[in-house]
Amino acid sequence: MTGFALGVSAGVAAAAVVSLLIGGRRLWYRFALRRLARRRQHRVRSVLARNFGPPDRPRRRWLNRHRRNLLANSFRVRLGARYPRSDDAEEARGADELLRHIARHGSRVYLVNAESGFGKTTLGMTLSLLPPCEGLTPLYVDLADADREDPLAEIEAILERLWTREEGRPSGRPLFVIDAMNETVDPFRFCERLALKGADLDRADAKLLFLFSFRHRSYPARVRRALLAHELGPIEEIELLFDLGTDSDLAFFPELLPRSGRLVDAKRLRHELRAYCERFTTGALSREDLAAYVRWRGPRKVADPRRAPSPGSLRFEAIVGAGLIPGPALDKMCDLAFALLSEEVTASSYAEITSTGYAKRDVRAWVEQSGLDGFVRCDEQYVRFQGETTVRVLSALSVARRLSVGSSPLDLRGRTSYDVCAPYLQPATQWTTGDGEDDPGGALVSIADAISEALRGRDAPYSFYATAFCSDRQGVFGDCRRDLDTALFRQMIVAIDEDRGQTCKESLETAGRSRGEPTLDPVLDQLFEVMAAYSRRAVTLLLETMTESPAPLVKSQAAYLLLDWVENVPVPLRERDQRALETIPGRLPEDEGNLHFRFHEVEILEKLVERFSDLPELNAAVLAKAEKIAGSQPDRVAAPEVGGIYENCQRLVTKRAEYLLHPDPREQVRSDMVESTWGCMADIEGDPSFRELGRAGADELRLECWEVTLSLAAWLCPRTHRTLEITSFVETALEHPFWIVRWWAFDGLLKISRAARRAERKVLAEKCLRRATEQLCASVEPMGVKHRQCALTKRLLDDGDVEASQAARRALREAFDRHLSGHRKHVFTEGYYEVMGTSPDGYLSEFFRRMAELVPTASR
């Protein structure tokens, strides 16, 4: 009996042990996802500590929970971000808040876009360090090392390991944070493989988050199309933000200082960073730029941001100072990086390299001999550069080397994709030429001559060299810099005058013939990039051009660019900007009788009064100059076929100057101007030569009359009741064969819309908006025009007037649906193919990217 009881007890105990083992195994498996996440965190934590932590401290200890939370809270994103911004767009402060948003919303796929250097990769890694939120566990997946033939291997392995076992499904659901999609992976192949794993993704209730840089112009759109084609939506777009004016964005920067630097007050450091940023006009500095400055300043209690090297110099030195060895091997690697820069990638297969005549062993030898072991890695199939900054620095060295032998790379012409390496050109030039002991200044003079020679023609790389000159104040070009600045502006203005003499058809045909790859044409798009780079420094150059150039058209284009700066200078004014503004009225020539130039002069004076009425001395100088212009003798033309309308336009400019001088009463002036403008419109409409322009000298005069009449019509339209006739005239100009006339008409419609909205004439405002957005989405025009149309439309969408922004959003959405959604997009593309005679996909890629930002859900 006792033995029987013992046997029963032993059996019960054995059953209990087996049950516990089975239960323990199931429990162990239930937490498999969390354990996997913790194991993967070790590598991510090590990378972050290596990037941000001091080299003399244990890396794992440095990135503790406190620093992780600081890092997570320093990120800020705009949820559901597209332009125009949807009404329900929100900002999430902190990576944890972003994770919470993804966990609670129904979208399966999220696309995070960021400006280069804003920290998208760091955001992805930081997400993977956070604890699960409502069961959603982030897993960082870096595709930089992925195999092009099997890009989904890592994700497939995770799904196979955790969600196909008999034990059942583990606790939680994965969020795959996918980075470096653009390196070697074909997005369509990737999404095709992803669709085949759809059942596994559904079983795991997985979500996908892709990280992209805005520099990758085509990849986000291609991934979006591929995902939707395989029914892997819905998709939500998110924008990673960074702003020096937001303290939370700067919260992590004190952690970058060595321990002895803790004496630096965080508030003082933020003030220092803002002072450093104000030095540079080539765009807002990124998170990586400021991190480079913080590392440079080190633990010192006080640092002078005015004397600090530029971000380009600091990041250049971080790579070149690590032991690069000058020589043929480095030259080869720099040329390879330059080739990759235009392709938006940081890796190249050996097959692509060997097609140029080099073997795999040659590439491996180049890496070793050039000292790039820490920045370039060679695996079995690919040569992989460490990141975008490495590619850009080496590309700048490639450009500098070619300049040193007397020529600028032809690939720079007509393209802006290489502009991202321009901030590194000055330090690259200095490094390439050495200390100049053998030939003091001779090498730099030779480089300056090569740049001057490159700055000629309609497709010259004006924006590239403008960014290079303005990104760094270390004065590498010495005494040549002044001549280079002047040459750049003079030649660019000459180019726009040549360019405006083309029809849309001629411009597109030229782009289609350009070395097998359509280039940006015309130069119009680069004009404003150059102005953004020079900012207030352009004022002096433009004023000198206006006073010294003998060509009236060159003077007038300089005045047009100066008007753009006056319209867009930030308010409230900085002291230097105000000083620059105050120099303008006194230096404008009042004795120039050319119609085009006088017209832009008056526009500049009007804009100064409109935007800066609180500056009495400036306004007094403006009125004094307007009085002189109104009393000056305008030019008369000898061409009888345009003489009458030309003189009418001259009188209109004089009346507009008088209108500025005599604010009360204005009715008589207004009536006179309406009648005169109406007469000019009738003359243009009644003369066929104003539409079918040739190449005769009188046609340049006709273009001047077109610009003045269109601008005055747009200015008067909201101020008169004869709106139907005026808007009809402006809309008809949108169909003119010459792109420059279309551009003036498009700009005029948006000006009418804004002015009509301020005058509470909503019907007129919305009518003009609808026609302008129709032109943007439907008309086949050169890309320079399209890009500027996008820029003006974005400015309107970002207007502080909520009602105006919503009206513009509706008009743009309707026009997009009619002309660019679904199969209609192919019809639009076919229109370009018919004119260009070649595939326009590359030519249109940047336009479609900009439209995807402008229009909500544009990719659907």
Question: What features would you describe in this structure?
Answer:
With 860 residues, the protein is of the alpha/beta class. The chain is 60% helix and 6% strand. A seven-stranded mixed β-sheet has the order 2-1-7-3-6-5-4, sandwiched between helices. It has a three-stranded antiparallel β-sheet with strand order 8-10-9. Helix 7 links the parallel strand 4 and strand 5. Helix 30 crosses helix 31. The radius of gyration is 31 Å and the shape is globular. The N and C termini lie far apart (78 Å). About 2% of the residues have low confidence.
- Portion in beta strands: 5-15%
Report the span from N to C terminus: 78 Å
Radius of gyration: 31 Å
Helix-strand category:
alpha/beta
Main β-sheet, in a few words? 7 strands, mixed
Strand order of the largest sheet: 2-1-7-3-6-5-4
Number of helices: 38
- Large-scale geometry: globular
Mean pLDDT: 81
What is the helix content?
Answer: 55-70%
Low-confidence stretches: 22-29, 81-88
| Number of distinct beta strands | 10
Features:
860 residues, alpha/beta, 7-stranded mixed beta sheet, 3-stranded antiparallel beta sheet, 38 helices, 10 strands, 60% helix, globular
Present the secondary structure layout:
Layout: H1 2-30, H2 32-52, H3 59-62, H4 65-73, E1 76-79, E2 90-93, H5 95-104, E3 109-114, H6 120-129, E4 136-142, H7 153-163, E5 173-179, H8 187-196, H9 198-204, E6 207-213, H10 219-229, E7 235-241, H11 266-277, H12 287-297, H13 311-320, H14 328-341, E8 347-349, H15 350-354, H16 360-370, E9 376-378, E10 382-385, H17 388-404, H18 425-433, H19 442-454, H20 462-470, H21 480-499, H22 504-512, H23 524-534, H24 537-548, H25 552-568, H26 575-587, H27 595-611, H28 616-631, H29 640-661, H30 667-686, H31 697-716, H32 723-733, H33 739-758, H34 762-778, H35 783-797, H36 802-819, H37 824-836, H38 841-854
Parallel strand pairs: 3-6, 3-7, 4-5, 5-6
Antiparallel strand pairs: 1-2, 1-7, 8-10, 9-10
Helix pairs in contact: 2-6, 8-10, 12-13, 13-18, 14-16, 14-17, 17-18, 19-21, 20-21, 20-23, 21-25, 24-25, 24-26, 25-27, 26-28, 27-28, 27-29, 28-29, 29-30, 29-31, 30-31, 31-33, 32-33, 33-34, 33-35, 34-36, 35-38
